[in-house]
Write a structure and sequence with these properties.
198 residues; Dna Topoisomerase Vi A Subunit, Chain: A, domain 2; Helicase, Ruva Protein, domain 3; single chain
Length: 198
């Protein structure tokens, strides 16, 4: 027996969300249908308000209710350092560390030749324009450690270094509280190469 058409439509829409497969989309669809109508209205309202009020900051391209965003307009931040991330979610993750006091730039993705994503498909041109117009002394590349993130970091380093700007990469290694015996070879290798004097 097939699902009713309205549920089928919900499943097809939810399935398009990242990380959601057909089974999870079906579970979420049925869960939403069981929610009290007031909760469903709150969900719909939250999505609509986010779509209406959020915009990209014209300087860093983070999602914000204001332009420039609170980070870019904060005069207390170090204006000569930019941390380059792939997504607004990455920016939030880095900002939770509280040790970083510089500015940010959100690329909007990563280079992926296999997926036909080239430099023109993410905000590399806007990053270079910002680096030329602002007095930037260091760029921290905080892209993912997968092949796309590494490709993006290498590409950016090649085009930024000739500008006379210091390019650094986030250090990688063992998680705090993690057991060495469970770490993979690449993680241990990066932890050793990224070691610091005590």
């Amino acid at each position: 027996m097939n699902r009713p058409q309205p549920i089928e439509k919900m499943v097809e829409i939810i399935k398009k969300l990242p990380g959601i497969g057909p089974k999870m989309a079906e579970r979420l669809s049925y869960h939403i249908l069981k929610m009290p109508s007031g909760e469903i209205e709150k969900l719909i309202d939250a999505i609509q308000k986010a779509r209406q009020t959020l915009r990209y900051c014209s300087s860093c391209f983070n999602l914000s209710e204001s332009d420039p965003c609170p980070v870019c307009s904060d005069s207390q931040r170090e204006r000569g350092i930019i941390c380059v991330v792939e997504t607004p979610q990455d920016l939030i993750a880095v900002s939770k560390a509280k040790d970083y006091k510089g500015l940010y730039f959100v690329l909007g993705g990563a280079l992926s030749p296999l997926d036909a994503v080239g430099p023109q498909d993410i905000r590399i041109d806007k990053l270079l324009k910002r680096l030329k117009s602002d007095n930037i002394s260091e760029v921290i590349l905080a892209t993912d450690t997968d092949s796309k993130g590494e490709t993006t970091a290498l590409y950016l380093a090649e085009i930024i270094k000739p500008m006379g700007i210091t390019v650094t990469r986030l250090g990688y290694g063992l998680p705090v509280g993690g057991d060495i015996e469970y770490a993979d070879e690449l993680t241990i290798s990066r932890a050793i190469s990224g070691r610091k004097e005590m």
